[in-house]
Predict the structure.
Amino acid sequence: MVKKIFYLLVIIVGVFTDATAQTLTPEQYIEKYKELAIREMKRMGVPAAITLAQGLLETENGNSDLVKKSNNHFGIKCKSSWTAEGVTHDDDAPGECFRSYKDAEASYRDHSNYLRGTDRYASLFTLDPTDYKSWAKGLRKAGYATNPKYPDILIKNIEQYNLQQYSLDAAKDVPKIETGKYEDDKEPPVIKAQNNDAHVSSIDNESNSLSTGSTVNSINGHKYINAAKGTSLLAIATENDIDLSKLLAFNDLEEDGILKNDQIIFLQKKSKTGDRDFYIVQQQESLYDIAQKNGIQLKYLLTYNQLTENAVLPSGKKLYLSSTAETQQAGVIKNEAAAIVTNATTVNTNKMHSVQPKEGLYSIAKKYQITVQQLREWNNLTTDNLKIGQHLIVSK
């Protein structure tokens, strides 16, 4: 009996020891990764204090689920430029794609490369690398995080754990930056929506160009702003107190980032129908452009006109903005034709999708209006990692 009790105690102590060994303290995280941070500061110029403070925050001192399954220490999402491995993780929206690395060193290197190689962070490298307060505020201003207290948290981590010593240690070896090639750190023009309807003006829906005014406008009863090229979607969401995932959904977008062109950005959910029966396509207009100009959700515009998202339309074509008699009739004709084909031949009803470089399970599921769980089950997936060119069943 005594032996059994002894062995039971040994097992309990062993389990407790394993559980506690897996949890890092802030001090342990710093000790484990400080050399990587110093090395990256000497290589790319990102202050070691900032890197470690971000690592502590983003990984919950090295204990977050994301870092354990992906070695992602800085919460960097896949985005369109990422062609390597990724994992899905719930963040601003369920099942978002985050970059995955073979080890912590690869994550630290990519973090430095990401900041140094992205235009919106360029002005940070004109700052004194030992000025951690300006760096912390600059990261937030450039759109690195949605939390308005992000700079305060970084500064607190740096001062509480004396992380500045590691920046000072590497400061003399920071590579020289050609400051003349960068512009001053200017915020892109972002207009905050006003609750007072007196500040909302209407737009002439016949116009084919974006207005250049600085006020909040309205299309089809929904507020929008004219966002300039180079504006961060994250900055727009933050400035207007809108969750980033909601802003993306309002504008039929799957990924955040920097706008490549001047465009309309809605601050509210668009309607299922337009405020008129039809719209005449102008030169070089995409279906997305038309959906934005008319304040209508893209999926409904496609449905009314029996089109796919990538369809190229000739100028002068009439597009229906609601389920009119014409579109209903077109749907009937198309369904009858489909029925004839189905009755005449036996077809494989499984619809396939080829994975593109920027895609993760979440974005693919959203594209085909299915769930991530369905994708996993239909394709017998045991991990969230996808390979470019991999074929997935997206409809049964």
Notes: The longest helix spans residues 2-21.
